[in-house]
Every structure is written in structure tokens, then in C-alpha cells.
Amino acid sequence: MTVHTPRDEQDASAIIREAAENGTLLNLAGNGTKASMGRPNQTDATISSTALTGVTLYEPAELVISARSGTPVLEVMRVLAAKGQELPFEPMDYRWLLGSKGEPTIGAVAAMNISGPRRIMAGAARDSLIGVRFVNGRGEAVKSGGRVMKNVTGLDLVKLMAGSWGTLGFLTEVTFKVLPKQERMATLVIRGLDDRQAIEALSIALGSPFDVTGAAHIPDRDRRGGSTLIRLEGFRVSVDYRMNELRRLLKRFRFMDLLEGNGAEALWQSVRDASLLPDHGDRAIWRVSTAPTKGPEFAAQVAGALDAQWFYDWGGGLLWISTPADGDAGASVLREATKAFGGHATLVRAPAEIRSTLDVFEPQPEALMALSRGIKASFDPAGILNPGRMYAGV
Length: 394
Prior knowledge:
Layout: E1 2-4, H1 9-22, E2 26-29, E3 45-48, E4 55-59, E5 64-68, H2 73-81, E6 85-86, H3 95-98, H4 106-111, H5 119-122, H6 125-128, E7 129-136, E8 141-145, H7 157-161, E9 169-177, E10 179-180, E11 184-191, H8 195-206, E12 212-219, E13 226-234, H9 236-249, E14 256-259, H10 261-272, E15 283-289, H11 295-305, E16 309-313, E17 318-324, H12 331-341, E18 344-349, H13 352-355, H14 366-379
Helix pairs in contact: 11-12
């Protein structure tokens, strides 16, 4: 398969324009670390952002950074760390789950709206994304947004591109708002709570005025207890005060420890990257978003029908669920649970033959699918960009 590596936006425009004229279906890629996510699409060639690298703008005083789409996330983080800053939304690294190699790119973070545990406080990647440059399916270069947040009327192309998985355009540059790196991180660990008790504790913490930046629960193997994690970040004095108040607020849950340092950082990285799930490469992995208070019921319904393992992030609003990868990988059970409790279930990992026959993303009502098809047609009339990656025929 031909792999195109444009050196600049003009190259990308020429490649996509020619593909549109010839009906060449294009697979959009960075370094390929997430190539096995989504529906397998049947394409004729690949256009890769690997040659589009480098930070193009960084203004620490304005808390803004721009980088070409193929720039490794690690490089962006290093540049920010040198000035004591960071990406607010703590982007997940999928390599452990997918068994992939290479360096994740900043363009993929925007294209897939990738976030981590801090989303409950800082929002998703799309909430920090304030500017994009991309080439649409006609081969036209488009710039939207800029270096400051603005109120937007009409179609917000920046937010539309976030989470579009390359089906609307080939990103060439992205701009994010950033934040100062926190001086201290401390994690309150409550032991022995079952799922319902844990979600209750997390809900109390998140409803408090103490600015929780991480809220997760990791059930024990027997599902009768586990570790409930509540993270605070900020200035040392502030973290001390808020942690003491949080302990008082949650004192009825009793068995509490305080975790800091490298151990705490490694634990939250495991939550971020979903590496807390048992490492069975032959199992499917689902990512479920639902109302936090519905999380335990959701997990119980799935466990009643499948050999499932799971843990919670975002105060219970995000479940990572492992299921057997045979048959439909548990899709019928997960879809029934989303109907019963609300939410969205995305199949993150499964063999290609399973992903090709299932709805990888939560099925949309026909009215929303019609809207999705209309937007796709307006950006990519020939349907050449990542066809079918998210939904069949789109």
C-alpha cells in the first residue's frame, strides 16, 4: 500500500485533491499506535503526519502551544515541562492496551479527543483545543480558531474536528490552552469499599469544594472491596488543608491512607492507560461512559451475563470493562446495558474480524446518523477520508 508523508500543508492538499479526483480511499495515520482502534477500513493508500513535526508556537505567558500534527506527545510535554506547564486533560496512552509501538502524536490526541483522569476537573481534550489547521476531503486547507478562547456562533470547526477520528479532515496543526504544572499531588486511598460504597464516597468528594482532580475505584478480584482513589493537586499548603477537610468529610469510610510520590504517579498512570485490567491480550476491552451513580448497576448487569473484569474512573462515570473476545465480544450484553442505564459503550480492543462486523461505537438514532452523514458529505464529498472508521458507510 502506498504511504504518503506530506512535508507541509500544501503537500497534503495536493495528495488529498488527487485522491478525491481518482476516488482513492485514504487511511489517515500518525505513528500508527492506535491503528487497531475503530472499524477496520478498506483503503487504497495511507496519508501519514509523521513528517509534520515540531512546535510552531509556544507562549508560556499566554498558556498557549501549537504543534504540527505529527509531533510526538512526549515532545510537547517536554517543551511544556521546561516552563513548568502541562496539558490540562492528561491524555491517555493506548499502547499498553493495544500492544502497539512508536510514539503517540499530538494530532491523534485532538482527532480522537483523548483524555485521562483529570477530565473530571479540566475537561476533555476538545475543551482545551482552541485552534486547528486541516485539509478537508476536497484538498482545501482550512484554519479554524486561534490563540485565544472565543465565543463561537455557527459551526465550531475546532470542536467538530475533536473526536472525528480523521473522517472529516487531515489535521496538520493543533493549538491547545495549557496550565501550570501543579506543585504537589496527593491521593487519599480508601480501602475495602464495594462498588456502590466507593461511588458514594467519590460522589461526596466530587461534590465538595476541594477541587478533586482524580476519582477512581479499583475493585478487588473477588469484587467485595477494593481501593478507592481521590486525588488532590495544587500548592502544598492548599493540598494539606483540602486533604484534611476531605478526610473529615469522608471519616465514616474509615480505612484511609495517603499516597504521594512516584508510587502515586505510577498508580494514576495505570488508571489513565487502563493498565489496571488483567493483561490478557486475547480479551476484548470496552470503554463505557454512563452516569456515575449507574456505574455499579451497569457493571453488575454485565457481570451477570459475562466473565467480565472492570474498574472505574471519572467518579464512576467511566468504566473500563474486559470481556471474552469470542462471539460478539459481549456487544449484545453491553448494548442492552446502555439501553437500561444510559450511556455509550465503545469497543476499544478486539480482533479485526469482530470489529468489522459490529458497531464499534454506540449506535446512533437515525436522525443523528443522518446528521453525521450530512456533515461527512460537506467535508468529504467523495468519501475518501477514513471511510467506515467510525460507522459503516460514513
